[in-house]
Amino acid sequence: MAAWSERLAGVRGVLLDISGVLHDSGEGGGGRVPIPGSVEALARLKRSQLKVRFCTNESQKSRGDLVGLLRHMGFDISEGEVTAPAPATCLILKERGLRPHLLIHDGIRSEFAQIDTSNPNCVVIADAGESFSYQNMNKAFQVLMELDNPVLISLGKGRYYKETSGLMLDVGAYTKALEYACGIKAEVVGKPAPGYFQSALQEMGVESHELKEHRNKLP
Amino acid sequence: MAAWSERLAGVRGVLLDISGVLHDSGEGGGGRVPIPGSVEALARLKRSQLKVRFCTNESQKSRGDLVGLLRHMGFDISEGEVTAPAPATCLILKERGLRPHLLIHDGIRSEFAQIDTSNPNCVVIADAGESFSYQNMNKAFQVLMELDNPVLISLGKGRYYKETSGLMLDVGAYTKALEYACGIKAEVVGKPAPGYFQSALQEMGVESHELKEHRNKLP
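^ inputs. structure came back:
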């Protein structure tokens, strides 16, 4: 316990990733299993004086579905404690009057239910998995090429992630494809964008120097 | 005629592109139509003292199919006059003992009929069109990630091309996706790689200073 106290001196909050920290990924986003010891570790954190928040790049499932899955696994977590790229993107879209063409997984489509997608003036790309067909990629490309000022918002920039069946291409690869084809640079909403971490901290009410981020497995 | 002679002083050969020079692209690689005047312009070049060769990045059709289509349009062209990325790639694969996993359009699969594709030690990517599914991209990605020394050969690096139905994503975009995901750099076989032009010149028996490349429509 002494070591813990020393390591956490001056720390007021803990910002946790979810995939690879609380659970391991299963195939197709299903079959996720808790990492041994992580349920107990989170419970211990929650009993401490530390503020706890979750910061994920999950872009295949809605925040509600994700939290439901985690609670089912035994984690003490609520939707309001999770910073996720889709809700963060919706805020940006509303602020800037952007109407997206969505190249996303059906699992997070509900997050954009309140967003006007008519006559699109930007493209939002997320980890669409099997929906990254040539037809869907080409449609997003054509929308961007028809805009005077093409805006591409990417939910994360991951290269790949691991599922039980093997490594899987992540959104970052497809974002690079559109960037190259259109000669543009995407705006990234999600880690490692500094603004994304900042918004998570604001929601915690913690300054960045008071924070301890755990990159590795909890236990 | 005087202007022609002046412009061609010291020129011994003409290297011509095909798509956008001899014909315009139609949807799905079909429906290609000759550009008005180009059949006659090519015939005139062939009657001249100039050596004529075709240098294309076509990677959806085999050289045989492409030439058949052009001859049907009325062009005086034979298979041996065409430098295309697929045959050039086959030479490289044989020279270096590479066994490719092929991420290509079915239309050029016949070009690789003599190539050993068992137990692949590289990936060859071409303009695969609709075959750029998530599953096929992910398979190519996984093959590369399993190699100690991942080799990715890209048939061209085009960003997009135009069909009658609109702009279409080209191989370069998908190559960028794999480069980013794997943290590697592809070897490009096709224009604008200098080695590719050089091989076309060798096949013509012309030095580069004796050449005139036409980038625009012929007539």
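The mean pLDDT of chain A is 91. The radius of gyration of chain A is 18 Å.
thumbs up if we can close this ticket
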